[in-house]
Amino acid sequence: MGRYDHLDESSVRERPSRRNTRPRSKDRPAHEDAVDGMVVGVDRGRYSVRVQERTVVAMRARELGRTRIVVGDRVAMVGNTTGAPDSLARIVRVEERRTVLRRSADDSDTVERVIVANADQLVVVTALADPEPRTRMVDRCLVAAYDAGMEPLLLLTKADLADPAGFLSHYAALDVPHVVSRGGSGGALDAAGVEEVGRHLAGRTSVLVGHSGVGKSTLVNALVPGTDRATGPVNEVTGRGRHTSSSAVALELADGGWVVDTPGVRSFGLGHVDPATFVQHFEDLAPGTALCPRGCSHDEPACGLDAWVAQRDDPHGADRLESLRRLLRSRSGEDRG
C-alpha cells in the first residue's frame, strides 16, 4: 500500500491563497493634502523643491514610475515637507507643463532630452570673441525656443573684444531683443549689461543656454550674489570653454522671477523638431514659402525662397536662407558640418 493510500479528500487541508485574500483597487490615492512646489535642482535622484520660503528635499514616489522630473516642474509632495535637515518628502504628482525646452543628442537622434519645464524665456548667451560666436548655434537655439513656445533673448558678452554690429545684423530681420555687455579687459560682463539683463528677467522664468566659457555662470553670480556658480577660462588650444556648471539649477531673483543656469553645451540637436516647421521659425523667410511648389523641401532648385530673398533685397537674406538650409540638411542627416 502506498504512503498516502489511507487518506481521502477530507484529510486534505487547503492553504488560503495569499493572492486573493485582499482585493486591490486600481484607484490611486488622491493626495488632496499634497503640498505644491517648484523643482529648482536635481541631484542623483533627489529633488530640491521650493515651497514658499523654504526648500524641501524630495524623492520620486514609486507610483510615478519612470516619469521624468526636471528643473522648473511644478510638483505635489506628501510626507515631511518642512524642509528640516535630513527630512525627505515624496513627489506624487507632476503638473502639466506650460512649456518644455528640449534638445536631442544630435540631429539624427529623435529622442528628446527635456532641459527645463515651464520657462518663459530662453536667453541665448554668446561671446563676441574668446570663444568666437557661432551663428549656427544661435539659430538652433532660436528654433528650439520657438518650438517650446518660449520668447528668445540674445545676450552678447565680451563686447570689449569685438564690435557686436556685424553679429546682430544677422538677426535684424527676426527682431529678436538683445543685450550687449561691454566688460573691461576681456571681462564677460559689466554693470550696465547686468542691470539691463535683470530688467528682461524680472518676473519671468528664464533659461540661460550657451557654449562653455561665454559667461553664463558669471552672469548668474552677478544677478544672484552669493550663488558662487563655478566659472572657468577658455581653453587656449581648442578655443572652447571648459564645462563649469554640471547641472541645471533655478535661482530666485531679488526683483521676482527665476533664472536657470544650465551646463555649457557644444551642440544643440534638433532631432525632436519636425523639419517642416523650421521655416516657420525664420519669420523673415516664412512668407516666401507662398512662392514654393507643393511639397517643397526648401532645399531644391525649384524652391521659391531664392526668388523671395532676391526681391526683398535684404543684404543678410541669403545668409539666413543658407542657415535654414544647413539646418534642414543637418536634420535630415545630409550635412554633419
N- to C-terminal distance: 86 Å
Q: Rg to the nearest angstrom?
A: 27 Å
Whole-number average pLDDT? 83
Counting structural domains, the number is 3
Which band does the percent of strand residues land in?
15-25%
* Second rung of CATH, namely the architecture of the largest domain: 3-Layer(aba) Sandwich
SSE sequence, one letter per element: EEEEEEEEHEHEHEHEEHH
User: In terms of structural class, how would the helical and strand content be classed?
Assistant: alpha/beta
Describe the 3D structure.
This protein has 337 residues and is α/β, with parallel strands linked by helices. The protein has six helices and 13 strands. The chain folds into three domains: 35-94, Beta Barrel (OB fold (Dihydrolipoamide Acetyltransferase, E2P)), CATH 2.40.50; 100-261, P-loop containing nucleotide triphosphate hydrolases (Rossmann fold); 275-332, no CATH class. The chain has helices at residues 135-148, 165-169, 191-201, 216-223, 305-312, 317-332, and strands at 35-43, 46-51, 54-60, 74-79, 89-94, 100-103, 113-117, 121-127, 151-157, 178-180, 205-209, 249-252, 258-261. Strand 2 and strand 3 form a beta hairpin. The longest helix is centred in the C-terminal third of the chain and has 16 residues, at 317-332. The protein starts with 34 loop residues before the first strand and ends in a 5-residue tail after the last helix.
